[in-house]
């Protein structure tokens, strides 16, 4: 699927849902503002957020309660977050480029865990590496394609982020769906 197709799908998916996605972002911000909650719950809330966007790729409407759907995997989500941070840091010690490449390689791990809650954190990480094999360049360019929007959002004092963050998240969720469709056919 092309970058333009992924973005077009994302725009259609977030259309009419910006209000609820903004409320979800506010709830996340409030919860993560508490230091202890931040340390323990952020990975689980991140997993819940990924589930929201994956559900949107299936045509489901987002709900605030779905943000907490990752709490049943708080241990795995936390461990996955730790592994991603640890391995990315190790690769970054070599040079910046290997750290970026590995970060892209691990970037689909939360999506894998959200899609396959029976997996361990390590399995989700390995599956992320497998499905991004040969697609890290596409993912890098996809992320880079939002740079102009991010710069523009700074000039709006961050107001544009109300639309931009859901747009980016939905686009990445569509990229994940595209990857898993490809790897299922190829694998």
In the predicted model, the low-confidence regions spanning at least 5 consecutive residues are none
Radius of gyration: 16 Å
What's the number of helices? Answer: 10
In round numbers, the mean pLDDT is 93
Structural class given helices, strands, pairing? mainly alpha
List the helices and strands and how they pair.
Blueprint: H1 3-14, H2 18-32, H3 35-57, H4 74-94, H5 96-106, H6 109-115, H7 121-132, H8 136-144, H9 147-155, H10 161-186
Helix pairs in contact: 1-10, 2-3, 3-4, 3-6, 3-10, 4-5, 4-7, 5-7, 6-7
Structure, explained:
The chain is mostly helical and 187 residues long. It is built from 10 helices and no strands. Helices cover 78% and strands 0% of the residues. The protein has helices at 3-14, 18-32, 35-57, 74-94, 96-106, 109-115, 121-132, 136-144, 147-155, 161-186. The protein starts with a helix and ends with a helix.
List its salient traits.
187 residues; globular; mainly alpha
């Amino acid at each position: 699927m092309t970058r333009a197709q992924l973005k077009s799908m994302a725009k259609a998916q977030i259309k009419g849902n910006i209000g609820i996605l903004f409320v979800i972002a506010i709830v996340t911000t409030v919860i993560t503002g508490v230091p202890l909650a931040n340390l323990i719950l952020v990975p689980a809330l991140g997993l819940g957020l990924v589930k929201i966007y994956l559900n949107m790729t299936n045509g489901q409407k987002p709900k605030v309660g779905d943000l907490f759907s990752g709490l049943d995997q708080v241990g795995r989500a936390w461990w996955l977050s730790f592994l991603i941070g640890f391995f990315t840091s190790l690769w970054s010690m070599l040079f910046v480029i290997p750290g970026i490449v590995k970060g892209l390689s691990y970037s689909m791990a939360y999506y894998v865990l959200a899609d396959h809650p029976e997996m361990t954190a390590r399995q989700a990480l390995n599956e992320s590496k497998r499905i991004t094999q040969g697609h890290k360049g596409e993912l890098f360019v996809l992320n880079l394609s939002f740079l102009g929007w991010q710069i523009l959002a700074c000039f709006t004092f961050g107001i544009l982020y109300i639309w931009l963050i859901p747009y980016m998240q939905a686009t990445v969720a569509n990229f994940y769906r595209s990857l898993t469709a490809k790897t299922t056919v190829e694998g």
